[in-house]
Specification:
The complex is a heterodimer of chains A (233) and B (173). Chain A has 233 residues and is mainly beta. Chain A has two helices and 13 strands, in the order H-E-E-E-E-E-E-E-E-E-E-H-E-E-E. The chains are: A mainly beta (233), B mainly beta (173). At the A-B interface, helix 1, strand 4, strand 10 and strand 13 of A face strand 5 and strand 7 of B.
Chain lengths: 233, 173
């Protein structure tokens, strides 16, 4: 017997379709056959635990060998909860992003913008017992991406979350308020529901700023909640 | 009640968080039947998917200090991922069913906005016949896309086709 509780299915319109023609790279990379519906078992309902002992936190992306990265310093802070508004404690959060000029420290990024020798662009933090996380970084620049003529990605930070099960795994991107590129970004607009889409936009938060040092943005994230009834029933 | 945050693609530059050691689930000294799981990911035109992040999870053997149960492998220029891990045993299914030994596989990449979830089973496992997921797939050709084949000593191969002829069975998660 295995009465493990699975996770709730996504709310309609809240998640993007992998077949999104406006994002050209999806064309040959989305399945054309229907996905198999299969209720969660122990495989999907459980997931990895990460300890800071094996995965040391790296909460300040603005310093490398003691030297400061170029750009606008920002603090990003937020709370991770589940769909029942319960905090997700001690879960690992991975972060990666472009530098202030819109260039990734990655061999695949050929954008003609300067690399910053003091900025790599990767970070890792854990939520506290109440689901809060925070890190300090540089506001990433926008960059061109050849999806269509004169295509530019809005400023964004990539995020990776795990949560309590393999089914709660989430990769997403955090955007910035007031970015004019959001209106024309196919990846942002791949989320059908407008409210769900707008929840990917962080908010400027004066309480998170550090005077004379860094601006502050708030980005809360919700991971899937447990289904009401155990799967074994 | 709240609604879960929307996914966005992992994109082409996720290697900033890559750590090659994560593909070896035995790195903390786990002991048991060690094996390699490998495979090649191709797209709808048969081209290698060379920028994917492949993640593996197994509920068996149970994760502990020496065995994380989870791994991550980047695909190389040929689209190939490779994990070193322990052979999973059967795990309980819903009700009184039993699931054949399997891995959970998550594929994240540029051009995949959320993720693609599938499983890898082992050819020749007697329990495959009664596995609740495999039994949902009527077409034997489709079912075969989830079965890893022996590919040398202690090595199992399951190629993954994202789209088209021989398309891998993906699972709602
Ligand atoms: Fe990006």
């Amino acid at each position: 017997m295995s009465d493990v509780t699975g996770f709730r299915p996504p709310a309609p319109g809240s998640q993007p379709e992998n077949d999104t023609p406006t994002y050209g790279s999806t064309r040959l990379r989305h399945p054309t056959r229907p996905l198999i519906a299969f209720p969660h078992t122990i495989t999907e309902a459980t997931g990895p635990a990460f300890s800071p002992r094996h995965f040391p936190a790296l909460a300040d992306l603005t310093l490398m060998d003691g030297k400061a990265a170029q750009g606008e310093r920002i603090i990003v802070r937020g709370r991770i909860t589940d769909e029942d508004d319960r905090p997700v404690p001690h879960t690992m959060v991975e972060i990666w992003q472009a530098n202030a000029a819109g260039r990734y420290n990655h061999p695949g990024d050929q954008h003609d913008a300067p690399l910053d020798p003091h900025f790599k662009g990767d970070g890792r933090v854990f939520t506290d017992a109440d689901g809060w996380y925070q890190f300090t970084t540089i506001k990433p620049g926008a960059y061109p991406w050849r999806n269509h003529k004169n295509a530019w990605r809005p400023n964004h930070i990539h995020f990776s979350y795990f949560g309590p099960g393999f089914a709660t795994r989430l990769i997403t991107q955090m955007y910035f308020p007031g970015d004019p590129l959001l209106a024309i970004d196919p990846i942002f607009h791949s989320v059908p529901d407008e409210a769900a889409r707008n929840r990917l936009i962080s908010s400027f938060d004066l309480d998170i700023t550090q005077p004379e040092w860094a601006l502050g943005y708030r980005f809360d994230v919700v991971l899937r909640g447990r289904a009401a009834t155990p799967m074994g029933v | 009640m709240s609604i879960a945050t929307a996914a966005q693609t992992i994109g082409p530059f996720w290697h900033l968080i890559e750590d090659k050691s994560l593909a070896d689930l035995t790195r903390f000294g786990a002991t048991g039947e060690v094996l390699t799981l490998t495979g090649r990911i191709t797209d709808g035109e048969g081209n290698p998917v060379a920028d994917a992040c492949v993640e593996l999870w197994q509920a068996s053997p149970a994760a502990d200090e020496r065995f994380p149960g989870w791994g991550r492998s980047a695909t190389d220029a040929t689209g190939t991922f490779r994990f070193t891990t322990l052979k999973p045993g059967p795990v309980p299914g819903r009700g009184n069913t039993q699931q054949a030994p399997h891995f959970a596989i998550n594929i994240l990449a540029r051009g995949i906005i959320t993720r693609l979830y599938t499983r890898a089973y082992f050819q020749g496992e007697a329990l495959n016949e009664a596995d609740p997921l495999l039994n949902l797939i009527e077409d034997p050709g489709r079912r075969a896309t989830l079965i890893a084949l022996p590919d040398g000593p202690s090595t199992w191969r399951m190629d993954i086709r994202l789209q088209g002829e021989g398309e891998t069975v993906f699972i709602e998660v």
